[in-house]
Design brief:
single chain, alpha+beta
């Protein structure tokens, strides 16, 4: 009986480790996301400048691929599923921009190539899901054998209450030459930014209307003199 209880507890723990969600409360909004996504984990920071707000993940060095001797090598890494939700007293709006960079690549030998593509699906306010086609990130060449990948995508949203991303991933591919690789570093970031503005409480609207009414009354009195 005791062995059965231990086995059940172990199975429950394993299922909990396989997928877990956490919520970051960033004041004007909250982000609920899968913290167990390999290569990303917990949100590393969040930021604001006036009404412009956002958050980001650090990309772990485990996000990499290497080709030796010309053989094609491909690796796909999931981006955390997440939902942004407006907190009470705030309104969220776009444009909402997601960006990733700068993921370094190295190549050696004739015919060596590397590429990095991204895809995923999103929905707004619980509406239907829209799948984005796989798109390559921009490859910036520093030297013939070294450079980096970066890119951004913008959703031209108006006001929204929630925004969800599911099934997103990046695919790293290296092949040809004698050596080709792509590898993330801790300073590489997956970032999302948008706009958050305070929403006046009903009492504020009432005071504003009362003030306007008083101004109108005083103006009419002056005109009547």
């Amino acid at each position: 009986m005791q062995l059965k209880s231990i086995a059940a507890a172990a199975a429950l723990l394993a299922s909990g480790l396989a997928s877990a969600t956490t919520t970051l409360n960033a004041g004007s909004y909250s982000v609920t996301y899968d913290e167990t996504t390999a290569g990303f984990g917990f949100i590393s920071s969040w930021f604001w400048s006036g009404s412009s707000v956002g958050f980001e993940w650090s990309v772990d060095p485990s996000v990499n691929v290497t080709s030796v001797g010309g053989a094609a090598a491909t690796a796909t890494f999931a981006i955390p599923d997440f939902t942004i939700t407006a907190n009470p007293g705030f309104s969220l709006s776009g444009p909402l921009t997601g960006s990733l960079g700068n993921i370094v690549y190295f190549m050696s030998g004739a015919g060596a190539t590397t590429s990095l593509t991204a895809t995923g699906s999103f929905s707004v306010d619980g509406g239907p899901s829209t799948t984005l086609p796989s798109a390559p990130l921009t490859q910036t060449v520093i030297t013939p054998s070294f450079g980096y990948f970066s890119g951004s995508s913008t959703a031209p949203l108006g006001a929204f209450t929630s925004f969800s991303v599911t099934g997103a991933s990046i695919t790293l591919t290296a092949s040809g030459g004698s050596f080709a690789s792509i590898g993330a570093q801790p300073q590489n970031k997956l970032k999302f930014d948008f706009t958050a503005t305070p929403v006046p409480e009903p009492e504020t609207y009432a005071l504003m209307l009362a003030g306007l009414g008083l101004v109108g009354f005083m103006a009419r009195r002056r005109q009547g003199r």
